[in-house]
Write a structure and sequence with these properties.
By secondary structure, this protein is an alpha+beta fold. It has one domain: Outer membrane efflux proteins (OEP) (Up-down Bundle), CATH 1.20.1600.10. The protein is built from eleven helices and four strands. A four-stranded antiparallel β-sheet has the order 1-2-3-4. α2 packs antiparallel against α6, α6 packs antiparallel against α9 and α7 packs parallel to α11.
């Protein structure tokens, strides 16, 4: 048995093609990532009054180590964040899209490998007596033509089995650019997953602090109602003793009714905030009722952590939306190379080997073998301008992705500046509201003493009481806004890792 030999010139051609594959360059532009534009300090790019600039922001920033949302020191919030990461449906959708992009990368990456397929079959067949073989026999005109037609057209069995293999020689980098684009798509999907995770965590924190703020308002309102009713009883007693008039009773009764009227709306706001949280962790209404019960009156809210912004250049790189926009630009750039490569010839190496026989007994004999090997060429000649137009389309899409990337970076710095302005202003407002609350409380205590000793009328005490109640509500609301402002800053900076707690 003689082994078939392959012509030496064909072997040399294959070797040259292999060398060209290894040394050839991919057509189309190469993507060169650039660091997003960033200021030297957070106070450099600032809109509005200079009074909104925190002096700490003007100092040289150091790199901030990543932290988690546990920086707020609230175990209930930590538990909610963990549940949201595990059960939030938007996050699950983003995770599935990320998994799909990785599967798509594996599909595209398979084009770099040899494609091998096996086939087998057995059939019963009959040739036509008036088919192509009849025309051939007519041309040959053998003496036993009719007998040959009868024999050839008799039904018979046919067996075949074998495999074929093919491999595209990636001369122009079409496959490599396809893999590059798919890999960039994976990076974009991963950044999108991080963006959704950040958004979900920020929403959980925001709604949680909003809930606690409403619950504080409810607690203050109940305390205010109790104090107002107690004062009403005192005024009634003084009126019965002739120490004051019924006008004071009417005024205090109106004050108590006003406080009682505030309570139902606050209770509705509490229920809505709880439902927002249960939706974020994919739970039914009421599932978090016990976990989100109001904190005891004696429970002090943990102090908010101080800002530690880090380097502006690191913040820009850390934001998931910027990472996603850069990955989309990379993907669009790589697809240009795929389109350009389609303008050039495509060479594929192919081979097949198998057995064919009309007799099952000789099907596996070496003489029943068949094989073929050699390259095939696909040369684009005319397609009505489709390939060239596709290149132009991919270039326009790349330009669009570049504009989107620049817009994302610019929008990011606007969001950061807005968040820092709001947080800085609210922190200063909160400090002044704390002073106002303490002063109002002292004024009320003094007015009560003067009223009880008959040194002033009840209207002075009532006005002092209203002022103190409003100061309490404003301070509690500001404290909540301060916490939510810190959440907004954390999100704008690319995650909770940009806020570091201090003792």
């Amino acid at each position: 048995m003689k082994t078939p030999s392959f012509p030496l010139n064909a072997m040399a051609a294959l070797a040259m093609l292999a060398i060209a594959t290894l040394s050839g360059c991919a057509v189309g532009p190469d993507f060169k990532p650039e660091a997003p534009e960033a200021p030297a300090s957070f106070s450099t790019w600032h809109s509005g009054s200079p009074e909104l600039i925190d002096p700490e922001l003007a100092k040289p920033a150091a790199s901030a180590p990543p932290q988690s949302w546990s920086m707020f020191g609230d175990p209930v919030l930590d538990a909610l964040e963990a549940k949201a990461l595990a059960a939030n449906q938007d996050l699950q959708t983003a995770a599935l899209r990320f998994a799909q992009s990785r599967a798509q990368l594996a599909v595209v990456n398979s084009q770099k490998s040899v494609q091998v397929n096996a086939s087998a079959g057995a059939m019963r067949l009959r040739e036509s007596e008036d088919g192509e073989m009849t025309r051939l026999l007519g041309a040959l005109n053998p003496a036993n033509r009719d007998e040959l037609i009868r024999v050839l057209s008799d039904p018979h069995n046919f067996y075949q089995a074998g495999f074929d293999a093919s491999w595209e020689i990636d001369l122009w980098g079409r496959v490599r650019r396809s893999v590059e684009a798919a890999d960039a798509n994976v990076a974009a999907s991963k950044a999108m997953l991080a963006q959704v995770q950040l958004s979900v965590q920020a929403e959980v924190a925001r709604h949680y602090f909003d809930l606690r703020a409403v619950q504080r308002q409810i607690r203050l309102t109940r305390q205010d109602i109790a104090a107002a009713e107690e004062t009403l009883e005192l005024v009634k007693a003084r009126a019965d003793g002739g120490l004051t008039t019924d006008l004071d009773v009417t005024r205090q009764n109106a004050q108590a009714a006003d406080l009682r009227a505030r309570l139902p709306q606050l209770l509705v706001q509490e229920a809505q905030a709880i439902n927002q949280l249960t939706l974020l962790i994919a739970e039914r209404p009421g599932a978090l009722q016990a976990q989100l019960a109001p904190l005891p009156d004696t429970a002090a809210a943990p102090p908010l952590p101080d800002l530690s912004l880090g380097l502006p250049s690191e913040v820009a790189l850390r934001r998931p939306d910027i990472q996603m926009a850069q990955a989309r630009l990379h993907e669009a750039t790589a697809t240009i190379g795929v389109a350009v490569a389609d303008l050039y010839p495509r060479i594929t190496l192919g081979a097949n080997f198998g057995f064919e026989s009309v007799n099952s007994s000789s099907f596996g004999d070496w003489g029943s073998r068949k094989w073929a090997i050699g390259p095939s060429l696909q040369l684009p000649i005319f397609d009505g301008g489709r390939r060239r137009t596709t290149v132009n389309l991919r270039e326009l899409q790349q330009q669009e992705a570049a504009v989107a990337y620049q817009q994302t970076v610019l929008k990011a710095w606007h969001e950061i500046d807005d968040a820092l302005n709001v947080y800085t202003a609210e922190r200063r407002r909160n400090a002044q509201l704390a002073v106002r609350e303490r002063s109002s409380r002292e004024s009320l205590q003094l007015a009560q003493v003067r009223y009880e000793h008959g040194l002033t009328d009840f209207l002075v005490q009532l006005d002092a009481q209203r002022t103190w109640l409003q100061a309490q509500r404003d301070y509690a609301e500001s404290t909540s806004r301060l916490a939510m402002g810190l959440v907004a800053v954390s999100k704008a900076l690319g995650g909770a890792g940009d806020v570091a707690g201090r003792s």
